[in-house]
Amino acid sequence: MIQFHHVSKRYEDKQKSTIAVDRVSLAIPEGTIYGIIGFSGAGKSTLLRMINGLEKPSEGQVFVADQEISQLADTQLRSRRQKMGMIFQHFHLLWSRTVRENIAFPLEIADVDPATLNKKVDYLLERVGLTEKADDYPSQLSGGQKQRVGIARALANDPSVLLCDEATSALDPETTRSILKLLQEINQELGITLVIVTHEMSVVQSICRQMSVMDHGKVIEEGTVEELFSNPKHPITKRLVTNELKSVDHVEEVLSIHLYDLRNWNSIQQLISRHPVHLQILPGNLNVHQPVISFRVQGKSEDITAVKSILQSANEEGLSC
Ligand SMILES: Nc1ncnc2c1ncn2[C@@H]1O[C@H](COP(=O)(O)OP(=O)(O)OP(=O)(O)O)[C@@H](O)[C@H]1O
């Protein structure tokens, strides 16, 4: 379990003081895949970096498995950090070392004997699908392959937690899917807790179980991914969900419905709201003699089909013409 108790982080310099994280209390269960989302500058990375002590809170406490990270002395923190892997948007690989040497690096730091080290690196190369690339340099790899090296390196010391800071933001959608699949397998096979910071709702939607939304340093909404996607309450969450519905995975259609009795619109809308679609009523179509509502629906094609059938049965049941 990772816990934040009333955690704040303030950056001070001579000119100004910035509150990056503002009184956050949060519990991330062990073994889960947890998403932290929000717009740029919301405080996501700062919150993540407090889990492995790369940042210290100005106030409050951060616990990982009942150990107060924010109170550890430097040497204790270094050894604790070995059990918390981290991957980054721009990979942070060592460019003068081969793939094999990059993966071996944390094991060298941990003073692992050469035989165990080689065995471990071979296993990790195979696990992330890079055995063939072992002697290549990072500059010879694609973005997805570089992130696979990052993941293998992060797993070298058998971490219990893997922190992912915008790990797929520099990748195309296809490569993103393959990296997310790998992360999901790692979570299932090794039971590692994954904390994923991203501004891409599609990432959270595809692999996270629980999530929180941050804005101006605060956690403004939290819950299961299903809850927050189907019934976002905070305006920022709604905006994030709406933007996501415009993403490549979703389609858009303009539908119309004729309503003799406009009061029925509320019951139809209630039925539609059970589906995660974004619905925008288009102006200018309401006519007193033949009322027509036209609206733009964005969502997955199966949800749009469901909306169409709701409209169709509304017609058949005489709710509309
Ligand atoms: N080392 C620092 N010194 C001063 N201010 C900082 C520092 N790191 C972050 N900040 C500020 O803290 C706030 C939160 O930054 P943070 O990087 O945590 O946000 P974020 O949600 O991860 O944003 P992004 O998605 O753009 O990375 C921002 O206003 C940022 O400018």
Automatic annotation (TrEMBL):
GO cellular component, one term: plasma membrane
Protein name: D-methionine transport system ATP-binding protein
GO biological process: amino acid transport
PANTHER family the UniProt entry points to: AMINO ACID IMPORT ATP-BINDING PROTEIN, METHIONINE IMPORT ATP-BINDING PROTEIN METN
Domain ABC transporter: 2-241
SMART domains in the record: AAA
Keywords, in A-Z order: Amino-acid transport, ATP-binding, Cell membrane, Membrane, Nucleotide-binding, Translocase, Transport
Pfam family, one: ABC_tran
Family statement: Belongs to the ABC transporter superfamily.
GO molecular function, one term: ATP hydrolysis activity
InterPro entries attached to this UniProt entry: AAA+_ATPase, ABC_transporter-like_ATP-bd, ABC_transporter-like_CS, MetN_ABC, MetN_ABC_transporter-like, P-loop_NTPase
